[in-house]
Write a structure and sequence with these properties.
The complex is a heterodimer. By secondary structure, chain A is α/β, with parallel strands linked by helices. Chain A is built from 18 helices and 8 strands. In chain A, a hairpin with a 2-residue loop joins strand 5 and strand 6. Chain B has 9 helices and 10 strands. The two termini of chain B are 35 Å apart. In chain B, helix 3 runs parallel beside helix 5. By secondary structure, chain B is of the alpha/beta class. In chain B, a hairpin with a 2-residue loop joins strand 9 and strand 10. Classes of the chains: A alpha/beta, B alpha/beta. At the A-B interface, helix 11 and strand 7 of A face helix 2 and strand 6 of B.
Chain lengths: 422, 238
């Protein structure tokens, strides 16, 4: 008896509509993971650096030996500019400069200064793996010098023994020179752009999308659709009305969600750093562009949802149709969270660009770095996507699909045409 | 002018031909019934006339407006009541009537429409309750009110008393007759052939996508030597 029940339940639940979305999401995430790269391998790889040793003293030698053992040194010379060029060409992480008085200062009970010129490639979580490895090496340099000082007993200042070097960071990030900050600090500063905004956009798209798809499902379930379609109102107005109404509901729901989430995220952020001090602040026109990007992406998402919603037979089936939107939004979110758009492979760039939800996720960061072409191009693409989707939705609303579940071919006035019309 | 003219109307769903070249006319101010069993093609015919379905071949005009070319104009003068229609569950009956009336008029015209809808629905204080709480009969009365409050030139009613008890069905029939007296033309479908005798001046008997007979109730009864339309239909099919 139980076997009979299990067999029935399995047949009821294990159907193509249940299986397909999971298979698709597994394939998509697997492919995205492969394209982004293996984190473990990235961590094992030695960071690529350049070193300028102007000191040549004992402690500089210790530092050099630690760095040579733990990193791939592609420049070892005395010219800072030449070193920076080499590191840039070699796709390196940083150039470390030990000035002439590095060892002498330590002998004089003053910390030796290391100038670090970072080449920051992106603000995504995975973009900072190499710089994180170098941070570890700099700690190792400190430890080795500390050991040497203890063995020699040459310093009576415990503070110096514990921290024999200081560092002066300069980060070059997409054409901007940020004085006094390392990539990890810059990354933290940009956390709201790299983490909070993608999550916010994803939530907005999913919540608003769910509203519009559910609305279509409810129209069918409540048997209100037929009446609606015979009212003297243009099909385009029905489509736009549903989109705007759902956008409002989505914004309210996402707003409530984000109040809590942004407070949670703010606990991880550095509050005493002003982005404007480092040339990373946005102007009013920039914020306007971000708002436009978000607005058109929301419309694009909703227009796609309304097309999907035409497949809904009931409120319950509508919930399944939200799945493709969720997958697309999550691909955009995770990709932009882990990597900068510029640092992902071209194939993934094409995929991520094609998903309209990506653009508001990357807009703020791109505008901070003056990448207007990416933002404006994204807005233009998303607007075109929206227009096409709205046109498709209106055509479906003018066809038999909503009532019959399929598009009928029509023969009329001596011609064969698809049954779409106003 | 004819209210509805249907000529050689064919409607296919994929490979299935639901309507096989039907033709009929509805005169202005009359109640015309499409009568037939379930699956005969009644709802398909009404949906085509109500601008919901595309025409495979043939022609349909409503008060001189040709479908599908003038679908927008047709929607301004018709009101369609589907067989299994519902209303928005989270709206009150009043809000639902307001929602529909706003598509048809503003100001005094809008107010008059809603008032007429309230009178037809006759739900008393319950009109301010959510539709979700209504019984089937109350919902149907609300929907009939919605359909007729806009004073349509043509009311297309698909099984208007479907699923209603005797009292509610009689009330709906009274409302329909009242609308006709006020100048509305009614095209309705029903498989309740005895009810049709109470409502319709002329009828068309439809079976398997074809009209097999049409005329006044008396003409059809006489033609098939039948005591009622049900008997006439059975004889016509045979």
């Amino acid at each position: 008896m139980i076997g009979n029940m299990v067999k029935k339940e399995f047949k009821e639940l294990f159907v193509l509509s249940t299986l397909l979305p999971i298979v698709v999401i597994a394939i998509v995430f697997g492919s995205v993971g492969d394209m982004i790269g293996n984190v473990g391998e990235s961590i094992k790889e030695k960071p690529v650096i350049g070193v300028v040793d102007m000191d040549g003293g004992d402690f500089a030698d210790i530092a050099m030996s630690v760095l040579t053992a733990g990193a791939k040194v592609i420049y070892d010379g005395s010219d800072t500019e030449a070193g920076l060029d080499e590191v840039r060409k070699g796709n390196g992480v940083a150039l470390l400069v030990m000035p002439e008085n590095f060892s002498r200062n330590i002998y004089a009970n003053e910390p030796g200064e290391i100038e670090i010129y970072w080449i920051m490639k992106g603000a995504g979580m995975m973009d900072s793996i190499s710089s994180g490895a170098l941070e570890g090496l700099i700690q190792a340099v400190n430890q080795e010098i500390s050991k040497e000082l203890i063995q020699r007993g040459s310093s009576s200042d415990p503070a110096l023994v514990l921290a024999p070097t200081t560092r002066v960071d300069t980060t070059f990030f997409k054409g901007k020179e940020i004085q006094g900050l390392s990539p990890s600090v810059v990354g933290n500063m940009l956390m709201s752009q790299s983490t909070v905004i993608p999550i916010m956009v994803m939530m907005l798209i999913i919540l608003a999308g769910t509203s519009v798809i559910s609305s279509m499902g409810l129209e069918k379930e409540n048997k209100t659709l037929e009446t609606l379609l015979t009212l003297p109102v243009r099909r385009s107005n029905i489509v736009i009305g549903k989109m705007v109404g759902s956008a409002l509901v989505g914004m309210i729901l996402a707003g409530i969600y984000m109040i809590g989430f942004s407070r949670y995220m703010s606990s991880f952020q550095m509050r005493d750093i002003n982005l404007a001090d480092f040339g990373l602040a946005l102007s009013m026109p920039d914020y306007l562009l971000v708002a436009v990007s978000l607005f058109v992406a929301l419309l694009a998402g909703l227009s796609l949802c309304i097309v999907l919603g035409t497949f809904a037979k009931s409120y319950k089936s509508a919930q399944t149709l939200v799945f493709p939107i969720t997958v697309l939004a999550m691909i955009s979110m995770f990709t932009t969270m882990f990597k900068d758009f510029d640092t992902i492979p071209v194939a993934l760039q094409v995929l991520v660009f094609a998903i309209p939800f990506t653009h508001p996720m990357i807009a703020m960061r791109a505008l901070m770095l003056d990448n207007y072409a990416l933002v404006i191009g994204g807005i233009a693409y998303t607007a075109v996507f929206t227009v096409i989707m709205v046109a498709v939705a209106v055509r479906i609303f003018n066809s038999d699909r909503l009532l019959t579940g399929g598009v009928q071919r029509r023969v009329g006035r001596g011609r064969l045409a698809w049954g779409f019309r106003r | 002018m004819k209210a509805v003219e249907v000529r050689e109307l064919v409607k296919d769903y994929g490979n299935f031909r639901a309507l096989k070249g039907i033709s009929f006319e509805v005169s202005e101010g009359e109640v015309f019934g499409l009568i037939g069993p379930n699956g005969a093609g009644k709802t398909t015919a009404l949906r085509v006339i109500a601008t919901l379905l595309q025409i495979t071949s043939g022609s349909v005009t409503v008060f001189g407006h040709e479908l599908p070319k003038d679908a927008g104009e047709v929607r301004k003068i018709i009101s369609y009541l589907p067989e299994e229609a519902g209303a928005y569950r989270n709206l009150t009956g009043m809000e639902y009537l307001n929602f529909i009336a706003k598509f048809f008029g503003e100001g005094e015209k809008f107010q008059n429409m809603v008032q007429r809808g309230l009178e037809i629905a006759n739900l008393g204080e319950r009109i301010n309750d959510k539709v979700d709480t209504y019984s089937k009969g109350m919902t149907r009365r609300l929907l009939v009110g919605r359909a007729l409050m806009v004073n349509p030139k043509l009311a297309i009613l698909d099984e208007p008393t479907s699923g209603l008890d005797v009292i509610n069905a009689q009330e709906v029939r009274r409302i329909i007759n009242s609308a006709v007296n006020a100048g509305t033309t009614v095209l309705l479908s029903s498989h309740n052939m005895l009810e049709v005798e109470l409502l319709c001046r002329r009828i068309a008997l439809i079976n398997d996508g074809q009209i097999i007979a049409s005329g006044t109730v008396e003409e059809l009864k006489k033609e098939y030597d039948a005591r009622n339309i049900e008997e006439a239909f059975v004889k016509a099919v045979r």
